[in-house]
């Protein structure tokens, strides 16, 4: 009976592989993780993943008939039709990897094995079980080491020819610093955790000495994180406030452009930087409303994402649910 079947939701990351067993109602029955072994061009990753699934099935006496399917989020370029991943450099996968075929042949199962870009999968997770509240039109932007994004329109992921949703590579700043993609001035270079720190380093030497502890630490060559900057800004540090205004201004205006094209019910902000919470949300929302087309601004709300590290496994499981 389909109601009793389980879904494996898998989130492939450069440090760990997160796995969950999810019911079709969207409840996590079990979750765990295994280290990502990137040695020898990442050739241990899929065998380790298969072993983790196999052990969980044996532990619970599940057969192939008890499983509805496997959904997976992965970095890199995903070929959805073939079930392959290439160019996932933090997994050491440069060449195309036949992920779905390897899993399917091991279990000799006719399950759907569905793979999607990890940022898109996180967006699906937030839409299904998080701050997206089942809305048909949702944008997720993740602020971490980089800036990721996933766009859902009319309850469908926007994938284009494979690389849609790259919000972090929207142009943001004339004469901006070089991005890892090779271009200059991408949003990622100012609004990511590293971009916020870079901006602080630049502003420290263009502003007068404000007596700021953050500015002083930069002058002394001491390490500073984006979390340090937000905490100081919220406490009234004038230099830190200037850094937050500069970086969140770029983000708010970029989200205004995204909203003008997609007009979502919700734009969700996740990732490590979003731990700054309501202070960050208020800053971004102010800049968003100062730049967005008014009709769009009145119908789009900006929220903090709520699922944290579970967004990926929920979203991966939802790939299977949408498939059936």
Automatic annotation (TrEMBL):
Enzyme class: transferase
Pfam families, per database record: ROK
Top-level taxon of origin: Bacteria
Keyword Kinase appears in the UniProt entry: yes
Keyword ATP-binding: yes
EC number(s) per entry: 2.7.1.2
Molecular function (Gene Ontology), one example: glucokinase activity
Keywords attached to this entry: ATP-binding, Kinase, Nucleotide-binding, Transferase
SUPFAM superfamilies: Actin-like ATPase domain (SSF53067)
Annotated signal peptide: none
InterPro entries in the cross-refs: ATPase_NBD (IPR043129), ROK (IPR000600), ROK_cs (IPR049874), ROK_glcA (IPR004654)
Family note: Belongs to the ROK (NagC/XylR) family.
Designated name of the protein: Glucokinase
Organism of origin: Aerococcus viridans (strain ATCC 11563 / DSM 20340 / CCUG 4311 / JCM 20461 / NBRC 12219 / NCTC 8251 / M1)
Organism phylogeny: Bacteria, Bacillati, Bacillota, Bacilli, Lactobacillales
Chain's gene name: glk
